[in-house]
Amino acid sequence: KTPFKKLLNIVQRNGALKGFEFKCGKLKDHYLLPVDGTGLFYSGTCRCNDCCIMNEGKKNEAYYHNIMGGCIVHPNQKTVLPLAPEAICKQDGTKKNDCEKAAIRRFLAQVKHDHPQIKLVILLDGLYADNPTIALIKKYGWHYIIVAKDGNHESLIEVMNELYDQGEVEHHTIVDKEKNTTHRFRYANNVTLNLQDDAEQVNVLDYIEIDKAGNSHVWCWVTDIELTKKTVESVMRGGRCRWHIENQTFNTLKNQGYQLEHSYGHGESHLATNFAYLTFLAFLVDQIQELACPRFQKALNKPAKPTRKRLWKKITCLFLTLMIDSWDALFKAIAHGSKAQKLEFNTS
Ligand SMILES: [Zn+2]
């Protein structure tokens, strides 16, 4: 996990992390960190010591690996910066299956250990909108914006409706004339999350976007950032960035040539897990290049419809046939095109 930390430190030292700063009311120099789990592997036959087991002892016993990933993201940034992921796999010395709730605690502890100074706003799916997770985030001195869902937070929705009837819910509307979009906010501070004894006090933001076609999109988040007319829009933009972990990270790793789900072998003990870590690491290096290396950007954006897969193919192709002195030379050749050479045989 050290290389992830070292690479992020290099990005920070060179000032490239500045472009990811999230500003919201009193919050400055904070960074948005969406965290979520995803599936890597599932099989009815192939297994290793790290595999979690489904339907153990039954006819349909199956084996799987998941992973918990988190990236620094920003609404205006195309790139994401993954931190060291946490494998959701069988833990040493235990027979129990690992789960997302346990893995996220290990993931957050590792982040605090690797980057004790960095100020974060953790973005999570509704699955994690519970008291222990919120208490842990607060303990580390960070903030959070977490999705709240009707199914999981009935009492919260009820309290919001009650407050609404009493006229204690604030409203704010922003009309974006340029994009022909309306943003409607409804919010209340200091609402009790649920009926449990250790229930956290949270701020609730209900949000509806009405797009130019007249379609409504609804979101609801809980957060510890104070909700005011001045902050609701930033909180909404931050909250919607959670999508970057699904879309710009897991989907890229699965569908754009990184083969996260079909790695290069499974092995007997930790091979599959290590391949997943290496895949994330390769992705981080590429994202840093895309963020900060003009030569890489030129090479990636060379064709009219740039795709990563095409760039990887081009790199492999040149690597197999030519002597290349440096990455710089390689990206330059792709961006500017290189002269095709006549194929010659070595018959000696
Ligand atoms: Zn396995």
Description:
The chain is 35% helix and 25% strand. The longest helix has 22 residues, at 271-292. Strands 1, 2, 3, 4, 5, 6, 7, 8, 9, 10, 11 and 12 form a twelve-stranded mixed sheet that branches. Helix 1 (2-13) runs parallel beside helix 7 (271-292), helix 7 packs across helix 8 and helix 8 packs across helix 10. A hairpin with an 8-residue loop joins strand 10 (181-192) and strand 11. With 348 residues, the protein is an alpha+beta fold. Bound molecules: zinc ion (ZN). Residues 47-48, 50-51, 63, 65, 266, 272 line the site of zinc ion. The site of zinc ion (ZN) has 8 residues, from strand 4.
Structure summarized in a few sentences:
The protein is of the alpha+beta class and 348 residues long. It has helices at residues 2-13, 100-114, 131-139, 154-165, 232-240, 243-255, 271-292, 294-300, 308-321, 327-336; strands spanning 21-24, 27-43, 52-54, 62-72, 81-82, 86-88, 120-124, 143-147, 170-176, 181-192, 201-210, 216-223.
